[in-house]
UniProtKB/TrEMBL annotation:
Gene assigned in the entry: nuoI
Keywords: 4Fe-4S, Cell membrane, Iron, Iron-sulfur, Membrane, Metal-binding, NAD, Quinone, Repeat, Translocase, Ubiquinone
Naturally occurring in which organism (per UniProt): Paractinoplanes lichenicola
Binding site for [4Fe-4S] cluster 2: C66, C104, C107, C110
Basic and acidic residues biased stretches: 157-168, 201-225
Residues that hold [4Fe-4S] cluster 1 according to the record: C56, C59, C62, C114
Enzyme nomenclature, EC number: 7.1.1.-
PROSITE patterns: 4FE4S_FER_1 (PS00198), 4FE4S_FER_2 (PS51379)
Enzyme class at the top of the EC tree: translocase
Lineage per the UniProt record: Bacteria, Bacillati, Actinomycetota, Actinomycetes, Micromonosporales
Protein name: NADH-quinone oxidoreductase subunit I
Subcellular location: Cell membrane
Amino acid sequence: MSDDGERSTPGKGLVQGLAVTLKTMTQRTTTQQYPDVEPELPPRSRGVIALLEENCTVCMLCARECPDWCIYIDSHKEEVVVPGAARSRQRNVLDRFDIDFSLCMYCGICIEVCPFDALHWTPEFEYAETDVLDLLHSKDRLGDWMRTVPPPPAHDVLGEPSKEEATAARKAAGPGAATAAKTARPAARRPAAAAPPAKAAGEEPAKAAGDEQAKPGSGEAERER
């Protein structure tokens, strides 16, 4: 009996299952011979996360925004003596940057929120381990993945330049160079209003629209009545 109370045909489910099997047997297989043949991954595949240590400023944005809390960061401060400055400055030095890939869900939030492009996606996915504790990658191992980061796509020639490119071009041109606003074409001026045509000899000027109507109390209005 079905859920609707109707009696089903005996053996109908078996026939449907065999039909799916026969249909699959006639189709061409698409099995890839991995690992002998490397798979063709899409260009934006999400594999392991690589770290560019010199770009990290220990701002902690990636660790705070991570929904799985799988990023662990430790740092210390160092004094930097600046020639000519009244006092020395401090900077953060990265001591530990670990990502636990046994907890990571590959959402990419840490890469998106990083303001200095210290984290990058790589298409590498062959980092399986026999022990789950070995999936905790340190900053040295994350730095080794940087060699597998694909180059960024080419900039659209019809698109607007980025802020960094515009700033670099302005600095290279010098302070006296014309900016884009100065070199822009001026708006087209409107043509001057045409002068009224000259009156012909003996021609009376045209009456205004308000003068065509007879004023109440005038002689013309009395005659019309």
